[in-house]
């Protein structure tokens, strides 16, 4: 582990002071195995305490630290700086969200969209004494979709969403998939109605940005395509 | 200054501080019973550290092999090195099964057996495969499902609000004061009950598997209100923390057959646990690693050893341990298929915490006097379920089961009781903390103080403890507490002031860390996770006792008169051998 000099440009914005966001440059020396989050911590702790960003688990499961680095949406904690060549980093908040301060964006709308698809099991059938029976392949069918950490990297990268902010977006649709394809769920019809809306699944144009952005490598586009088929089947 | 006035005043029946499994499970129960409940959390609910748990949640469903409540109880008692309260453990194992089935009915996606039941895997210290799991994301799916249920039942969330003070007077809890992280400003929450569910506090250590948010804020608030903490000296160190980062590499790695090697390439566990080898309990393996390091057999003489996966082969590594492989590659640039992975013991779980009785009511003394309206659950609490050492997968279950029990008891309290008056000048304490941080202009950065604290805690009150080191540490702590009085922050603004909330957290770490050290100095025996080099044996004659510790003007006051509940006819203390 050696030290390296890097130049980091961060898009800064403080609503109390700044009319609009601006770039601020930091030169610093870091361990060559640093992650983007390590670098932000180094700046915040030792150079400039006014820098704001979200972070918590630093092991890519809490979903706090999605941001844009050198043009890509990434999780800061899981992205080593050596992923980018040239010792130059450009760090900015997730696009498509309004900035609260520096790298912190307003995710309320994102969480509200989740609520639209009724993100909970809907049951008509009687509840058994023990568990509902679900076969391993039936679990496997929803397993990957349940990995979503709600970091917003996908939603933020979606051009359809940039064009229409009422669109549910990939994360909420993936959540819909996770319930519609859950063998225990009795709420398929209502949920399908919700996503079959003008701001629903049909605004997905299979652009694949979401899949590239997903830090958990979830095959989002594939699941959304399966949803489309399901909606069509249901309307026949 | 905005802090002069409460920006908002909220009157709400029940306040829950923390949105991990404990807080959410309690809030759900309260909301389902038709009461108003507000969850205050400094991170978005789904960002809580419960989501980081991979391994599983314990319950004797007997889906994968024979199992029984009695066996789960015995394993937990033995794991606790007989310090766990057996009435609490009995209630816990009895309720655990219901908790898991409830989760399943809520929609938690569990891994399944061939016949479609919840799948269960073996875990250290459990004598039957008892860990119900969802691939390697168990905590994550439990947390998300609970959050979704809370949304369904209209639980009110105050996300990104950080509690700065508790409003307790005349032994009655009246609410809390919290800082709105996003916009700045203090809010008063006036309530009939408060549940403290703020999780673990591994951030007192340099090398830890815990999230940045795990700073034990509510423990410091308890101390500041003249109330005690319990059994704080018991901190579990996990043997497979990623070197330098402390990030957890799952126990599954050892389960699948990984070796642990010293600088001579020797599988040194043969010297410490020749039978179980790498699969010995966490505390045993952690101590073995530390001994090798201390005796100069760390890799290149440094403070780490190797976790070697290579003989498992690429196929098995990628199928069974993809996370372990990925973490090593991402954080250390080490490809576990070709190279051994540097590891070291990492502070992982906190057995001690806010003392509470079996009903999750916070108590103020060894007699069990209750603080009215104040409750606690999850890793922040000490009931004491885990005693001197927690078994893996028992803690998700603890947070869930006692979260539900807390919710039930709180609901009952809400029906039977009205609001008490607020304290006079409720904002004073919180405002003073904020002003002193905001107003200082000369002084040190909090990060410097925090780093020194963490470094010294890991060095002096880690896996091995001796009196000389700990006395040294106590001195250092005192100096750091002094220096903290002049701490300064760069950011004087209101909007998302990360500097402010981190500075506040450092004060909290400094406060309860002293209790960890004092408790460890006093306890002259080795039990569970607490190992004293001069006193390598468990001493039931003198030390089969809980520690209660207060902060007073004259320093830390300890009380060892609270004895664990033991069912002598069923589970009398025995040597803990594996
Ligand atoms: C890496 C890792 C893996 C683990 N794996 C397992 C496992 O497989 N099985 C198992 O049983 N256990 C496991 N554990 C332990 C288990 O995850 C925890 O003990 C448990 O999740 C704690 O839950 P909790 O609800 O008490 O706290 P948390 O989930 O930590 O939640 C704490 C909450 O408190 C809030 N909070 C804290 N301070 C404040 C404040 N001042 N103001 C407002 N809000 C505040 C936070 O925002 C958060 O919402 C693991 C732990 C770690 C670190």
Summarize the model shown:
The complex is a heterodimer of chains A (236) and B (578). Chain A has 236 residues and is an alpha+beta fold. Chain A has two domains: 3-105, Ubiquitin-like (UB roll) (Roll), CATH 3.10.20.30; 108-235, Fumarate Reductase Iron-sulfur Protein, Chain B, domain 2 (Orthogonal Bundle), CATH 1.10.1060.
Q: Helices and strands in order, then pairings?
A:
The complex is a heterodimer of chains A (236) and B (578).
Chain A lengths: L2 E10 L9 E10 L4 H12 L18 E4 L2 E4 L12 E5 L6 E3 L2 E2 L2 H9 L19 H8 L9 H4 L2 H5 L5 H12 L7 H8 L13 H5 L6 H16 L1
Parallel strand pairs in A: 1-5
Antiparallel strand pairs in A: 1-2, 3-4, 3-5, 6-7
Chain B lengths: L7 E4 L2 E4 L3 H12 L4 E5 L15 E2 L10 H11 L6 H21 L13 E2 L9 E2 L5 H15 L3 E4 L1 E9 L2 E9 L5 E5 L2 E4 L20 H8 L4 E2 L4 E8 L9 H4 L3 E3 L7 H4 L9 H13 L10 E4 L4 H8 L1 H11 L8 E10 L3 E2 L5 E3 L6 E7 L4 E2 L11 H23 L11 H12 L4 E2 H15 L6 H18 L2 E2 L9 H25 L17 H4 L4 E5 L2 E5 L19
Helix pairs in contact in B: 1-4, 1-11, 2-3, 3-11, 5-15, 13-14, 13-15, 14-15
The structure holds flavin-adenine dinucleotide (FAD).
Flavin-adenine dinucleotide binds next to helix 1, strand 3, helix 4, strand 8 and strand 16 of chain B.
Throw out a few tags for this protein.
A: alpha+beta; Ubiquitin-like (UB roll); Fumarate Reductase Iron-sulfur Protein, Chain B, domain 2; 7 strands; 33% helix; 16% strand; elongated; B: 578 residues; alpha/beta; Flavocytochrome C3, Chain A, domain 1; six-stranded mixed beta sheet; four-stranded mixed beta sheet; 16 helices; globular; binds flavin-adenine dinucleotide
